[in-house]
Fold this sequence. Notes:
Layout: H1 3-18, H2 20-27, E1 32-36, E2 39-44, H3 47-69, E3 74-79, H4 146-157, E4 165-168, H5 175-189, E5 195-199, H6 200-214, H7 216-224, E6 228-232, H8 241-256, E7 260-265, H9 277-283, E8 287-290, H10 296-310, H11 316-325, H12 330-347, H13 353-359, H14 361-367, H15 373-384, H16 398-414, H17 419-425, H18 431-447, E9 450-453, E10 456-459, H19 460-473
Parallel strand pairs: 2-3, 4-7, 4-8, 5-6, 6-7
Antiparallel strand pairs: 1-2, 9-10
Amino acid sequence: MDEMDVVSVLRRALADKVGKDRFELWFGASPRLELDNGRLTISTPSPLFQDWLRTNFRSQIEAVCREALGQCPALEFRVDPAVAQRPADSTPESGASAKPPSSGEPHAVPGLPRANGKTPSRDGPDGSGRRRPADLDSFVTGRSNRLARAAAELAIDKPGEISPLVVHGPTSVGKTHLLQAIWRAARAARPGSPSVYLSAEQFTAGFVEAVRGSGLPSFRQKCRGVGLLLIDDLHFLTGKKATQVELLYTMDTLAREGRQMVFAADRPPAELTDLGPELCTRLQSGMVCRIDPPDYETRLAILDQMARQKKLSVPPEVKRFIASRLTNHARELSGALCRLEAVSQALHSPIDAAMADESLSDMIRHSARFVRLPDIEKAVCAAFGLEPKSLQSGGKARRISHPRMLAMWLARKYTRAALSEIGQYFGRRSHSTVISAQKRIDDWLALETPVEVADRVWTVEEAIQHVERLLLAS
């Protein structure tokens, strides 16, 4: 069997492993698999595809290689724009060549009822006229949300190619902002193609009103005869069985026609079990992106943007103080700036470090989460399946040393422990060892270096986020 035959076998095995629909979406047309001299190269048309396949399918590719070949060749994920040059009709269900309907009102969306006194609109998600929707330019991008940002741009530029797109994460991390930005940019790019942005509550209210008398055909035409459908707060549909079925059929209709769907929820589809297996499966068939709370650098950038919008003069040291102490979400940062602005006006005094320390003390006290070194040790061990206290051992194997370095890096981020205290806790090491560990992790983050931990290859960013979710949830 030559290498081309081997690749065909691997593709069939991978399709069986991940499911036909998911395989066709991610491997059906764009990525190219080539086996040469014991190396399997997966060529993708863009860095987004490369990162997504490497993050979400590497373990499945390795598994089918071992099953089919008895061993796993070295894997290389490569960006090659040439693989995107293909006939438009070669992508299964991509909808790239599907012509969107040109009908529809240019402003309000008739036939969809008010929810909380608000009417869905194409000039503003709530139709109130009080504010314009957010856009991508005002979406501050950092490590916590850059994959979601890249996916949003792909949904705008190539509608239907990654449909449905699901973004999820805790409150106030930018999910609604991103959906509004997609909606606004898509309308600007394709003004003749109708699009609808709804909250799950509005979708439910529209469906219930249609059932009670306003007419299901009209409601379905408004939601299914579009080029782009965005629904926010999908978790609101929990327990609403009839509405879930209606959404299921709506998704099937749009998927058949290659239209773009975008959803936001507080949890990933796999955890939205109350929506039922059929709906969860469809939500997982496209692209799922998590948005985490912003990291320090992103919080600084958010503060810069907010201060510019308010035309508020905030010294750099005050921004650094706020970004290091208020770590939960952007609304905290906004609240801090609003308070400083009010105090500055009341005292007729410029904002400075002393004012920030005094004015924000209660916000910082309530926001702070006390993290101890044992908390970090417990989270790291749980994340990577290590025995308790193993990070305090003298073991130098990578399965121990890499998690130990991550633990030291996290200890510097989340605790006020001295270098010597951190070194002493994690195996009686010197403070210089802690400094070295921090520098090494920072370098790995900058270079996106892969590391092997717990029998899996991670990027350092993925490993840190995995630990942080356990740490902050405990």
